[in-house]
Structure formats: structure tokens, C-alpha cells
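dumping this here before i forget
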Amino acid sequence: MRIIKIDGDSLWNPSSLERIGELCTSRPGGGVFVLSAPTTIYGILEQIANIAPSDAEKSKKLLYSCLNAYKNLCDRYNLSEAYQTIEEMSENLNDVVGGVVRIRECSIRSSDCIRSYAVLFAIEFFAKLLESRGNDVVRYAPSEGIIFDEPQGDVLFDESYARLEILRNTQQEKKVHLVAGGIGSLKESDAITCFGPGGADLTAVLFAVAFRVDKLTLLTKKEGLFVVDPSLVSGASVIQELSMQEALELTYCGGHTIHSEALIPLETHNIDVHIKSIEKIDASGTWIRWNPPSSANPVKGISVVHDVALVVVSGRGMRGTQGTASRVFAALAQSSINAVMISQTASEQNICIVCTKSQIAQAQGTLQNSLKEDLQKHRISHISAINDVAILGVVGEHMRGRHGIAGAIFSSLGKANINVVAIAQGSSEVNISFAVAQADVHKAANTLYQEFFG
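structure:
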């Protein structure tokens, strides 16, 4: 049984659509195909959910533009029946939007329902296209798939696997099974809810686990995972193979071909992931394997996180004072501020916390208020912020125990006159992360690429 995730944007690209159409029917054994929401349609529906409480007329125009896009798409492939079904589906969507307009409020549940139509419309179009070419298609309803505890809440893995096991045992051979990626239903009802970022990837992963396959294929717009962001380094190469741990580090720290959270359920299952480009379907792409072969280069990739800032808690009186770090992180947690990276000196006189730029003012204010007594007693001398920072991470599982990796990193940056603001490395030695000024990120990425891959 094949489990393949397909990028929904490919529906609007004739050559890509032909390729995935052929892929779905290239084997007599059928398969499960998880479709993500097309980006443009999802954006339109998300905008409708946001403005419907205050602007009914604009909401109506946006909904019309969404339907018109599908009408043009269906006309291109002579699928009048598909558009008729989408129009009928849109009546239910219109009722939900109308309710939001009347009460002038869009609840989380209503927002999820509105946005879910981005992938539901796509599934209906694609199913009708495949059927018009003689394929037997089975559409899995959201109520048959992933289960959530509450709207936009957590996935209930055990309950979801139990439900998906039923689908696995009742799947019909030689048929194409289509799944709406990124949406599921609530435990207490069949109401639809949406995943967060990377929802379609996570849907595909959960199906792969429940269906007990040994390989999951992700078809994307990119050729695979790059050793570094190609928008920063011209000619950056694609990683051929990497371990699950390396993939988790790279995707968490800025490699957005697949979302890091989607990989987490695979940590306890021996399933390889193959990332390929729809446009370059014959290219090798990237394999994420549990036991990849060793490579001569201990560095597998370089991650980059933009738009972050640094808050620094400093003071000579911090040394030996119990609970200072605990109070710092408790205060940030209570204000829902996520620490992207943490660095502390051995002298205990300095703690650096990296967070998103949008949260830096809140983080600084929260700490000044929570640590007011420490400031008054001069245990802490100041709480300052450094804006416009980026994080780079050098990742490689075979860096562990290798001499000279850190020396090569910081020596090359020093020769390029790049100042490192903060450094962090876990005991696993898989990732060496450090912060530099945002203005230096392009030079830093190119310097490290030449050092390890040039």
C-alpha cells in the first residue's frame, strides 16, 4: 500500500496535475493519497473567517472569487459535474459564513469549518478528475480520520490510530483513496477542526503509521531538503540522505519542506520518508532514514531562523543565587513566550534567551516585572534586548565525538568578520546553534557552506 502526500497547489499547475494523476493510477494496487489545501484558496477562506464579522459584502466577494477559481479549473478539464458538486458544498459554507455575519463573531469552530473547505473543494475536484479517467475513487471523510480533543487542540493519537486501523482493514484494493490533509474531527462530535502548520504532512504520517507501511512519500514544490536555504546560498545542493534526528533538527530550525512536528510520530516507527519534487518526479529527492549510511562529511546541513531577538538577563549577584533561572523561564512560560534558544555562561552571571522578534518587548517587560526584587537588590543589574538577530545551526549526527567541528565553524566566521552573539549546544552534539546579527546572516550562511560543502 502506497501512502503519498500531494501538495494541493499542484492542482493549478497543468504539468504537475498530469504527473500526480499518472502517479495515482500508475499501479493497479491503488493507494492512499493525502492532499493538502491549495495555498491561495486557503488564504481566501482564512480571510473570510477573519473579516466576516465586520464586512459581509467583502466576504461575499471573496467567496465568489474562490468559486470562480474552481469554475475556471473545472472548465479547463470539462468537469462540469465537479463544479456542480463544489457549488452545492459552497451552500453549506455560505450558511456558516452567514451565521458569522449575523452574530458578528467567528468562533474557533466556525473558523475551522470555513477554512476546511479549502481542502474539501480540492478533494472533490481531484476525485472527479480521476473518475473521469476511469479510476475508482474512495473519499475518506474527516470524521473517519484524525481525532482531536478540542478545536485546534491536540491530536488524540491512540483514538486516531484505532479509527485509522478500521480504514486499513476495510480499504478496497485497486482503488484510489483520497484523504483531506490537515483536518480532522472532534472526539465528542463530527465537527471539523484544522491542524496547525504542516497539517497535511502530519495527516500523511499518521496514516503511514496506522497502515503499517515502510515508506511515506511527500510530493512538494521543492526538490527535497537542502543543505542550506537556497535563497541565501546560490547553488545549494539537496541532501540525499539523512537520519530522523538530523531531519528533526533541520526542520525545527528552519527547513520548511516538512514541518518538524509531523515527524515526531515516526520516532517510534521504522518508516522512511522520501521527499520529492512534483515537477522533477524522477529526481532522487531526499530520504529521511532510520539507519542511513555514514557519510564522509560529518555535517549534514545548515539551518537558519530569521526574525528573532535576544533578551539578556545579567548581574554579578546571580552567581550562586538559587532559583534565578527557574523564575526567568517560569515568567516567560506564564506569558506564553517560547524560548527558541537558550545560552548561559558558566559564571552564572548571564542568561540569554532567544524568542521571536514579535515577542521581544513582551519578554523584556515580563522579566523586568517578575524579577523586580532581584533588580532592586542588585542581584540582577539589567535586562536588555538585542533586536534583529538570526540563528544558524550546524547539524550532523556524525559530528558527535568529532574533533574540530566547532573550531572550524567559529574560525571561519571570525575570518569573515562575523560576530557571534550567543552560542548553544546540546550534549547530543547533533546541533551547534549560534546567534548573529540579521545583517550578517547571508554572509554567515555562505561562509559555512563554503567551509563544509564548498
